[in-house]
Structures are given as structure tokens and as C-alpha cells.
Description:
Layout (H helix, E strand, L loop, with lengths): L6 H8 L5 H12 L1 H4 L4 H8 L3 H10 L5 H11 L6 H9 L7 H19 L2 H13 L2 E6 L4 H15 L2 E5 L5 H5 L6 E7 L5 H12 L3 E6 L12 E4 L12 H17 L1 H17 L10
Parallel strand pairs: 1-2, 1-3, 3-4, 4-5
Helix pairs in contact: 4-5, 10-13
Amino acid sequence: MRDLSNPIEKLKIKMHELTDTQKKVADFIIKNPMDVAFYTVDQLAGIVGTSTTTIMRLTFSLGYSGYSEFQKGLQEILRSKAAPHTRLEANMKDLTKNDLWLQYVDFQINSIQNTFDVITNESLEKTIKTILNARNIYCTGVRSGLPVAQYLTHGLNRLLGNTKLQNADQSDWIDDVAGFDSTDVVIAISYPRYARRIVDLVSHAKKAEATVIAITDSYSSPLVKYADVILPCSSSSLSFHNSITSSIFLADYLITAVAAQNHEKIKSRLDKVNDILTEINYHHLPSNQ
């Protein structure tokens, strides 16, 4: 199910039904939600170059009583993009400690469902094709995005042998980016509050004509400007942090889909890897009882 209480999601769902002028307003809101959350209707109209009537009609079409109610909904979803201590304080107000486990499970199921609803089959197919055709794949992330990049790197490199982890907080990526070309792929993972180093990396990768795949929380993410493929994943949590549940779910799907595309070739590679692991006695095997 889509989160129909989310004004941004409502705009995306209704986008194809809007007039050209309303689409202009909607696009501005999607790209600048933090600003719009505190603009007056007159300020928004002036910045976009339209009338307050157009904006009011847009909010009516989304099911709101007016701009004020729409703006309150926008402010509510932006709570999750504030500083960690602010997020924690805001989110804790809605939690019942006795039912926390149930609330958490429901929340994450809804997050995965929302991610499923937003990502298109076309985007997924393009992503898989791009990964399979890449000379080199670089997965990058920092802080909460880093575990997703690590998981994706491990899975894709096990299958393809051409995937490297890039920690954008370390300057080593500069040496790699200097040699990028159109046959290279960067998969960048970033959530609010977006790390500047991730944006630096993908912007230079784009200048080198590498393909950029962005796993991020929304179309207002700074990665979108440089991305050839956008895979939006919910990063909201019940606490102070960015949740990686939906992104890990997506990463696991990408690994699975790549494995399914060229089964015989990948099986041959996995057999070789397994032979080496067996030869060096890598795994602990239970002794016979």
C-alpha cells in the first residue's frame, strides 16, 4: 500500500492527472519539500510563477481542505529528515512501549510495500542490464548507507568479480574516478541528511561519463541530479536513525536478479570460488557425532 497520508506520494500518484501549470508546482514541491513546508501560499506562488488559486486547486485535488492542511502534512513527513535528536523526540511521541515490536514490524512491512509501489519495473530492468554490461561496478555509501553498499558489493562481486566498495568518506575514490569512463557503473546509497562526499563522488563520476544508479529516499535527493537510474527506498524509522531495511531488501533483490540472468556462467564462477574456499578449509564444518 502507498502511504496516502504522505503529500509527496500523493503528488507523484496524481502527477499524470495534473495540468501543465499544476505539474510545475508539484515538481517544485517534490524537489524542495523542506522549503515549501514553511512557505506561505503567496510565497510559493511567487517563486514558482503561478497563482495562489492554482496552488489551492492542486491541494484540493489531493484531498486536502487547503494549502494549510497540505503544508502540515508536509511538515510531518519532514520530521524524519531532521537532526537525529529531533527525529527521536518527534517519533517517540507516537510510540507505545508495550506494542513496540508489533509497531516496528508493521512499520517496516509498510516501508517495503511503499518502496515496492514507487520503484518501476523499467527502472529495475535498466539497473540489471547496466550491472551486467558494466566493466567495473563501484558501490558507495557512508554511515547508514555503508552497510547496504557492503552487502551489495559482496553479492555482486561474488557473482561477477568486478565490484568494489568505495567509502566516500575516504579520499581513495578520487584515484578510481580519475580512470572512469562510460563502461563503469557507480551505485550510490545515501539518505537524509545527505553526505556531501557522496554527492562529490557521483558528480565527478558523471563528468567521466560513468553510469550512476542512485539508491536514495526521494526524488528531492541531491543524488537525483546525477543519476541515470533512481531507485527510491523508504529510509524512515521509528527512532532517530535512517532505516536501511527497504534498501537491503532492494539490494538483495538486485543480487538475486543478476544471479538469475546468466545462470550457467555465474554457476561456473561460484563453483570456482567454492573450490578455493574448500581447498583452504575456510568453513567450520560440524564434526560427525
